Structures are given as C-alpha cells and as structure tokens.
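Forgive a beginner's question, but would it be possible to get any protein sequence you like and the tokens describing how it folds?
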Amino acid sequence: MMQRILHEMYVEPELLSELNEEQKQILFYKIRQEQVRRWMEREAREESSQKSSGLPKGERKHIQWLHGIDSEVWVWVMGEAPGDRTYEQIIKELMEEKARRQAQLEAQELWRKKEAEIKKKFRDAIAKEKARLVAGKWKEEAEDRKAAKQEEECIQKELKRREEEERRKGEEEVRCAEEKRVKELFMSLQQEQKQSEHEDKEWEEQRQRSKAADAEMMRKARWARDEYKRQSIRAMEKGHFKQQIPVSRRHSAIEIDTAAKSQDQVLPGDKDRPRPSLQPADPPLYRRRQSRKNSSTAALPLMDSPAWVRAPRPCSRESIILWFCEDQKPKRAGFDRKSSTIATWFHGIITREESEKLLQNKPEGSFLVRVSERIWGYILSYRTATAFKHFLIDASGDYYSFLGVDQNRHATLSDLIDFHKVG
C-alpha cells in the first residue's frame, strides 16, 4: 500500500481520514523524500545525457560567474557604486519622462483638433463675407472698385489677425492642459509604483511565512521519525501493548467464521470445481480457477497464487468476505496461533464506533483487530488513557505491516500482534 501511494503520489481522502496526526506527518515526510529522490534522478539523467552527446565540455550548458579583483564573484548593486544614481531617482526620472511623452502626444492630438476647428471657423466666415460682398448691391453701386477691394483686404486682415489671436489663445490652452496632464500622470505613476512596492512587500512576507511553514512541517516530520525510532527500539525491548482482554465477538466475526466453515465443507473430489457461492460475483475479484476450465488455450499460466489481480480497494462487504476466505484464511489470519479457533482479539467486520464501544470500559492497553472496509487489510483499535487510536494494517501483499508507521514486515497477522504485545 505504501509503495502504491509513493508511486502515484496521491492519497485517497477516505484513507487519509483513517490516519492519525503522527501517521500523516510520517506519510508526508516520505512523499517529500520520494519527490527529492525523483528530482535528483532527473538531474543525473540530464547530466549523463549531456556527457553521452559527445559535445565538448565548453559547449555544454553551464553557468560561469564573473570574478572581481578579489577573486570573488563580481556583484554590482545599483546605486552603491560611485556616480550611480539611486533607485528612487532613476524610477522618478523614468516616470517623469513617461508622463512627459504621453502628455506631448495628447497635446499634439488636442492641437490638431483645435487647429482644424479654427481653420473651419474662419474659412466659413471668409466665404460668407465674400458671398455678402458679391451679392451686395453696395459693390455694384460703388464708383471706385479699388475702394471696394481695399475694404475687402482690410476685412481679410482683420479676420487674419483675429485668427492669429485665436491660435495663440488655443496654443496657451493646450500648453496649460499639457502641464496639468503631466502632473496628473506623474501622480498616477507614483501611486502605481507605491502600490507595486506594497504588493511586492506583501508577496515577500507571504513567501517568508510559507518557507517558515515548510520548515516547521519538516521539523515535525523529522521529530515524528525520531520519535518512532525511539518507540520501535523500546517496543523491541519490552513490547508495545498490554495483554488484550477477551471481549465478546460481534455478529460480523461470526459471519466470517461461518463463511470460512462453508469453504471447508467442500468435498475432496470437488476442490477443483467452481464454488456456487462465488459464481454470482460480477465482476469477480480474482481470476478464479474457472479460467483454466473455460480457457481454450492449454498453454496459459495458472493463476492459483494469492497474487491474483484485485481492485485497488474493496467495493462491497461481500468482496471483503470473499477476500478473507480465499486469501487470508489459508494464512490463518485472525486465528489463534496454537489452535484452530478465532483469536480473542479478532472481531471481524465491525465499525469504528462499535470497536470503541467494546473498548469503552476496558483498561488502558486493551486492543482488538477488525477487518478494514477501506483497504485490503485490518485496523488495530487501541485503548489509551484518554482516547482511542486506530492503526491501519496493510495486508495487500505477502506480508503484514502497519501502514505509514511500522516498517517491520511480518509473515502472519499473529506474528505482528505478538511482536507488539506484552503481558
């Protein structure tokens, strides 16, 4: 189970909820350790691929730092060298230049619009005046056409003068608008700079908090690993559990025992025949012996070992009972070591609440083992002085071990219990 978690780098939420805080810390530490191992392997592969490519050493990807007079890595800090301007001065000049350029562009656009309006205004006025002069009878009645022409020229000069005055006035308005816009843009850029500095500061504080949280998590994982080693050494010297008390077994344990007995009642001559109780299972949990009978190819390998393909996790109560009868009962899981009866500490398929109810009024150190409905294995429920603890026992392979806590592997379930039991 641990190998599958490290391979997929994913823990199912239901399985994670079964682990206590100590088990979660150790599992997190192992996942981070696997990530570091994969990263180092990838770096080693890239380095070996560069060496095997046959490129000269100077043409490979590498980084070479410049060195100063003191033979140390040359570092230039902006603003600290002689003659350097400070960072604030450079930023201020850049913002002023940016504001000035933008204001100039806006002023040019405004002046083009203003000039077009002025030209259109006086062009229309001149046209109207010419039309009035042409249409007017006073020009036809004037004895001296020269006087009329001079009068027309005077009118045009007056209109031109007024046009120049209007132009100068428009230029002054555009210049004032440009200066005002420069100030507005400069203030806006300053506010954006302050906002950016504030966001950078917040991001740096958040990064520091994240690094501190990672360091604290690594420290806790390291402490949990050291504490587990100390507990393992102490358990190897004098054991870990007190003598379990005989508590009444529930109907679920009797259910597994009844199913196991029904498996033993098959006649010797019918051992190789398909069992009727297993036929309705669709799809089957294992590749049963029927595969030999129904297969048309005699050269196919026989699948009679406990390593038959099974689902990643139990899908129903019937599949758990079938797994126990086919895979665990031949290993005498849950049975007493010296007899053919069920051990006093084994209680079959019961819930977490039922196990805590059985241990409610029992002394500290009392425990029981129940079949897990979440993984292919068991759960050891343990009574402490103030609460209850539940440890997952992985039985998906050919051995038994505590998931995420105990790395010792045991051949049978009884060996695991006896290893940690005293009294």
About this structure: The beta strands are 367-371, 377-383, 388-394, 401-402. The longest strand covers residues 377-383. Residues 145-238 form the longest helix (94 residues).
